[in-house]
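To whoever is on call:

I kicked off a structure prediction for a single chain this morning and the downstream step that reads the tokens threw a length-mismatch warning. I double-checked the sequence; it's 388 residues and nothing unusual in it as far as I can see. Pasting both halves so you can look.
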Amino acid sequence: MKIKVLYNDATRFEFIRRAVAEKSSGADISGSLQADNTLPALINGSAPDVLIVDDATRANLNPIESLSLVSPGIDILLVSADTSAEFLMNAMRAGVREVIPSSASQDILQAALARIMHKRGKHPSGNDGKVFAFLSCKGGSGATFLAANFAYVLAHEFGRRVALIDLNLQFGDAAMFVSESHPPSNLAELSQQIHRLDASLLAASMLQVAANFHILAAPDNPEQAVEVRREHLDAIVRLARQNYDFVIVDLPRSLNGISVQVLDMADTIFPVMQLTLPFVRDGKRLLTVFRSLDYPRSKIRVIVNRHEKGGEFTVQDLEKAIDTKVAYVVPNSYHAAAASVNLGVPIARANRGDPISKYLIEMGREFVPAEAQAVSDGWLSRMFSRKG
């Protein structure tokens, strides 16, 4: 966690630094003298997770509000001699999370920081989850089906906490692939409340598909897509990975600022294609874009979907054409996949013995620790999996 302290007095900075370091030993703490150009530098540079402004006054509130609008993922704590009700109200309206008096003890400062960390859903000893980005090299590849069903497998078969975020902002329907229920909220509505974002609000906005599997749905109305901005998604994905073992993002085929931001944040990118010439052509273009973005080859794991043996174009032909190794080859099982989608039931629940289900489970083993796999392989787990 990055924590930035703005101060007027070096002695005060040292007091705050020691208090923060004691509360969060792994935090990256830095300080700067307050100046007119400080907040623009925070916006244009590497934004912190938490900003502490010491000796804060009313003059700080307007630039703080501007910062909150541009970078809502930053939690702001003010240390001020002014603790009047009017100042507190104006500070909260500007996007400030906490205000404590200048005379506050180290314990009070640490308690305020602990509340902020709790709201962010992050504790000092927590480990961030992995972010997986699925996207289609060409329309109709089955990327959404794989993203949604792989998320279910990681949650149900291996007991991992999994979040699926549907970033197809105009026509997203990932929730329909694994559930018949209507989501309680969606990505656009959550973005409208970004100033209130915390672990509780995120959870309340998501559709629960299984005990450990939740979906943040795409907007109901394509017009709502404009509500989702890059800084919103940054804060949402960052919070999600603090609360889940895996965050799977279903991306649209077209690349834009928002989708590239998710690709930057992703630990692994899964381009999905099929063994036909149009997929090969568009897949090659997409991988060229990834190279131009300086993504290492190890970050890209190509998936061939709906594979059938004996076709005119082989996996080896594809690898030669795109100059990239294929990581996964998902077998074709059209009728089982279609039945799963039409029922709104994950394929591993509807038909655990289907070739697709078996392949996704084997694929999951690559990303789940061995001890979790041992639990999922037990006879009791298998018995309940048949029922679930």
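Update from on-call: the warning came from a stale cache, not from the record. Cleared it. Sanity check on the structure: Residues 277-292 form the longest helix (16 residues).
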